[in-house]
Design goal:
Layout: H1 6-18, H2 31-38, H3 42-54, E1 58-61, E2 65-68, H4 76-83, H5 88-109, H6 112-127, H7 131-147, H8 152-165, H9 168-177, H10 180-198, H11 202-221
Antiparallel strand pairs: 1-2
Helix pairs in contact: 1-3, 2-3, 5-7, 5-10, 5-11, 6-7, 6-10, 7-8, 10-11
């Protein structure tokens, strides 16, 4: 079994916090007990807890212990914390539900300036010469489609999804699935979506987004 590192332990602790463990008194076990449980050095646990403290999940009080900052599992902060462990398969299912609808809204609601912003993101992505730059502008293209919807709540849901997909494990997965051939296919599919948006064709935009997400899902998940 691979040795656990601080990032792994932080993620496991966050999932346990999100599930309601330690909710009764709002206090985590001492670091020495967690170190024994995970079979790692105490300083590894200390780093893991430090990550949780940095993102506001816990607060440490010298001489008293480590306490949860959000003890209500139904709070927005708790729900967002639970989403951080979302699987790629679950994320793709939600994308396939939301993004085609967003594309249809965008075709109907976008201003000319907003459509130009989508076009600019597409152009920059197609001109990108390396994977990180392309990934940035690929994500920006989708972000600007959501901005065209003129629905702030939907846009913020997408911001949350984008933040989850910007985490290191997601980037590594996208990096492994990336190729120049696939980049060109993505650009072609984005062009089809952009054309539908510019023609104010909601059905065409919805279909183009579904086709594109089908390709992305196949490349990322192999299905």
């Amino acid at each position: 079994m691979p040795k656990l590192v601080a990032n792994d332990i932080a993620l496991m602790l966050k999932k346990r916090i999100s599930s309601g463990e330690w909710l009764e008194d709002g206090r985590m076990p001492p670091e020495r007990d967690l170190a024994v449980e995970f079979g790692v050095a105490r300083n590894t646990v200390r780093r893991a807890v430090g990550f949780l403290e940095d993102d506001g999940t816990v607060v440490r009080h010298v001489g008293r212990g480590t306490f949860l900052t959000a003890t209500n599992p139904l709070s927005i902060a708790s729900m967002v914390a639970r989403m951080e462990g979302t699987s790629p398969a679950d994320m793709m299912e939600i994308r396939q539900l939301l993004e085609p609808a967003a594309a249809a809204f965008a075709a109907t609601n976008a201003s000319a300036a907003e459509l130009n912003a989508v076009r600019e993101a597409h152009k920059t992505a197609c001109e990108s010469q390396d994977m990180p730059t392309f990934e940035h502008w690929d994500a920006e293209f989708h972000h600007r489609v959501f901005a065209c919807c003129r629905n702030d709540f939907l846009k913020e849901i997408h911001n949350l999804m984008r933040a989850i997909r910007n985490q290191s494990p997601w980037f590594e997965m996208k990096k492994r699935s990336f190729s120049e051939e696939r980049r060109l296919v993505y650009c072609e599919e984005h062009q089809a979506l952009l054309d539908a948006l510019l023609h104010r064709d909601p059905d065409g935009a919805k279909t183009a987004m579904l086709v594109h997400l089908g390709t992305v899902g196949k490349n990322l998940l192999g299905r």
